[in-house]
Automatic annotation (TrEMBL):
Originating species: Scopulibacillus cellulosilyticus
Boundaries of every FAD/NAD(P)-binding domain copy: 384-627
Signal peptide boundaries: none
Coiled coil: none
Name of the protein: FAD-dependent oxidoreductase
Similarity section: In the N-terminal section; belongs to the NADH:flavin oxidoreductase/NADH oxidase family.
Chain ranges of the NADH:flavin oxidoreductase/NADH oxidase N-terminal domain: 6-329
Alphabetically ordered keywords of this record: Flavoprotein, FMN, Iron, Iron-sulfur, Metal-binding, Oxidoreductase
PANTHER family registered for this protein in UniProt: 2,4-DIENOYL-COA REDUCTASE, 2,4-DIENOYL-COA REDUCTASE [(2E)-ENOYL-COA-PRODUCING]
Length: 671
């Protein structure tokens, strides 16, 4: 990037950094398992090689009751040893790393720790459904000492800095808020007393670790909880942290209980920069921003506007391990962008059960160590491989096969690449899907893959290849037993998303899964004026309403609408549907479609829903006709929706494509 502020040198206390792009803290779901240590080291080492100026680890518990499933805990000697190895691995890769210290407080789960959660006051957590035990003064002091000792350990283990987790509603944040701190002793009551614990920790670290050891505090810029810490108190807290010796402030936003989304794709880029800026204007140490800073250009703009001094994105480093390096050399076309889907990252670490973190758009994430053991098959260069289908499964297969040296040709029946992923990019918040298609298109060009659009290859054409990979995807499923499904006002989701059929005004969507709810979200947006239009008239005091109103009803057989959508995005989607006036009938089955609407039935009720258009979102079937014919003539594999149409799962399809190519390569090498 030409004359970029992102790539000016900076410093956090005594720590000099080559540029301004850090890697924010992420829990990977494999910490504390020594069998996974090589993978953990490989993950962080690749990000160090990929240009992260400073890597911040996932939260490390200072005491057992403040930890959780697959979290390091500093009371375990082996965990300390693993962390030291991790720091050494990052340094060997040429990187710098900070240890984040954490105590979950009332967010800790007794089912994971085996211990009762503790907090400033016994206020039940909506996240865990548990009421924590109120800490005694002695208990508070033990936590204080554990944080201080944790920082001393970080320094002795070779970590370049330490960060305290005081945001997102965890323990130190709980002490600050009157919602969770209802004490009347020296650690609660007025704001000075609610600040006492974190300030004592910072003071103790300075005393024990020395004045020159870099200390970062991740503070909450806004809890987005009614009745919580005020903006004035938050700014004052920032000033006090600096007064007590903090070298940098990393500003987070929101609690897990907040009803304002902070990580969903629907949140505008840089939406919380004003919160970071308020803190920056009040202090004279570097201030770091993180939330919804997903692209180099947004990050650059944040620095140009002097809203922050450093950026610390997290998920973008899952999508591309060379995020900063590619930004530095200006390879925007080659950058694999995070699409904020949360499917393989936050949905894994916040789900039940916890699963290791991966990335939908980057199948290498979470498997770096495994992949490092695989060598390229020299025989692949002689192999001619055809991939039929240009959705994400086919794109991933073509890329992987070309990376292994194959001579690859990709056939796509339509005039654009992307398949269902391209259709889905129209859904609100999913426009970034186009970035993934762009990344694959660029990758295939660089790998000299021949791409033939608007082409359906014949059996004879495919017979000349050494191997054919079928990725023809899925077709919408129309229930044969559904009376009236062939009426002219009935469509399927693909017809609507591809623009083949215009929309009606009273729409019934049959199917309340992810596709049905996403489609309802798209359609119901007609009830909302575009933000730029609304803002324009708002400046002149004129209230405007959408010129087109649609009535949308979702008919869901399940009593849980959007059942297949991940936990970190489902509530956001359902909130949007409610805001837009979408009616959701849960526990109802569509029995008949008529010219006037649909008859639906639940266990207790039968209703008629008036509709001038009915859209069926009842699942999909595998399109594997070509595979069934071709497999008798040439070695043929099938992947993606063609292999399993039970759900549209791009992460699974991409991973399957890479596994197919790389595992085949390993088998060929071993034979």
């Amino acid at each position: 990037m030409t004359a970029s502020l992102l790539f000016e040198k900076g410093s956090i206390g005594s720590l000099e950094l080559d540029h301004r792009i850090l890697m924010g803290s992420m829990h990977l779901g494999i910490e504390s398992d020594r069998k996974q240590l090589n993978q953990l080291k490989a993950f962080y080492s690749e990000r160090a090689k990929g240009g992260a100026a400073l890597i911040i680890t996932g939260g490390v518990a200072v005491l057992p009751e403040g930890g959780g499933d697959h979290m390091f805990c500093l009371t375990e000697q082996d965990h300390r040893a693993q962390l030291q190895e991790l720091a050494e691995a990052v340094h060997q890769a040429g990187g710098k790393i900070a240890l984040q210290l954490q105590h979950n407080g009332r967010y800790a789960k007794s089912s994971e720790t085996g211990l009762a959660p503790v907090a400033p006051s016994p206020v039940m957590s909506k996240v865990t459904k548990e009421t924590p035990i109120e800490l005694s003064v002695k208990g508070i002091q033990e936590i204080r000492d554990a944080f201080i000792e944790g920082a001393v350990f970080a320094k002795s283990a070779g970590f370049d800095a330490v960060e305290m987790m005081g945001s997102e509603g965890y323990l130190l944040n709980q002490f600050l808020s009157p919602l969770t701190n209802q004490r009347s002793d020296d650690y609660g009551g007025d704001f000075n007393k609610r600040m006492r614990l974190p300030l004592e920790i910072v003071s103790g670290i300075r005393e024990r670790a020395g004045s020159d050891y870099p200390v970062i505090y991740r503070m909450s810029g806004d809890d987005y909880m009614e009745g919580s810490t005020t903006r004035e108190e938050t700014v004052e807290f920032a000033k006090q942290l600096v007064k007590y010796g903090v070298d940098a402030l990393n500003v987070g936003v929101g609690w897990h209980e907040s009803r304002i989304p902070t990580v969903a794709a629907t949140v505008p880029a840089g939406a919380f920069s004003h919160v970071v800026s308020d803190i920056r204007q009040a202090v004279d140490v570097p201030v770091i921003g993180a939330n919804r800073i997903h692209t180099p250009e947004v990050a650059e703009d944040m620095l140009k506007q002097q809203l922050m001094d450093f950026v610390a994105p997290a998920r973008p480093w899952l999508a591309d391990e060379s995020f900063a390096l590619k930004a530095k050399i200006g390879d925007r076309e080659g950058l694999n962008m995070c699409i904020s889907c949360n499917q393989e990252c936050l949905d894994h670490t916040l789900g039940n059960p916890l699963l290791p973190v991966g990335c939908l758009v980057n199948p290498r994430t979470g498997h770096e160590w495994e992949w490092s053991l695989k060598s390229k098959d020299k025989n692949q260069k002689e192999r001619k491989i055809a991939v039929v289908g240009g959705g994400v499964a086919g794109l991933a297969a073509a890329k992987a096969a070309a990376e292994q040296g194959g001579q690859v040709t990709l056939f796509e029946a339509k005039d654009q690449l992307g398949g269902h992923f391209l259709l889905a990019s129209q859904i609100p918040g999913k426009d970034k899907f186009l970035e993934t298609i762009r990344f694959y298109r660029t990758s295939l060009e660089r790998l000299n893959v021949i791409v033939k659009l608007s082409t359906k290859p014949t059996i004879e054409e495919l017979k000349v290849y050494d191997k054919v990979i079928i990725a023809t995807g899925v077709k919408p499923y129309i229930p044969e037993h559904l009376k009236g499904a062939n009426l002219p006002h009935v469509a399927n989701y693909s017809d609507i998303l591809s623009g083949k059929i215009p929309l009606g005004k009273r729409i019934a969507i049959v199917g309340g899964g992810g596709i049905g709810c996403d489609l309802a979200h798209l359609i119901a947006q007609a009830n909302d004026m575009p933000a730029d239009v609304k803002n324009f008239f708002g400046e002149y005091g004129v209230k405007v309403e959408s010129p087109r109103r649609v009535d949308v009803t979702i008919i869901s057989r399940s009593k849980r609408a959007a059942k297949g959508v991940g936990p970190t995005t489902r509530w956001v989607l359902l909130s949007e549907l409610r805001r837009l006036g979408v009616n959701i009938l849960k526990g109802f089955e569509c029995h008949e479609i008529t010219e006037e609407g649909v008859w639906v039935q639940s266990d207790e009720d039968r209703q008629f829903i008036e509709a001038d258009q009915v859209i069926i979102c009842a699942g999909q079937t595998a399109d594997r006709e070509l595979f069934d014919i071709l497999k008798e003539h040439v070695p043929t594999e099938v992947i993606g929706g063609s292999f399993d149409a039970s759900e549209l799962n791009a992460a699974k399809a991409i991973r399957q494509a890479y596994d197919l190519v790389y595992n085949s390569q390993v088998e060929a090498t071993n034979n």
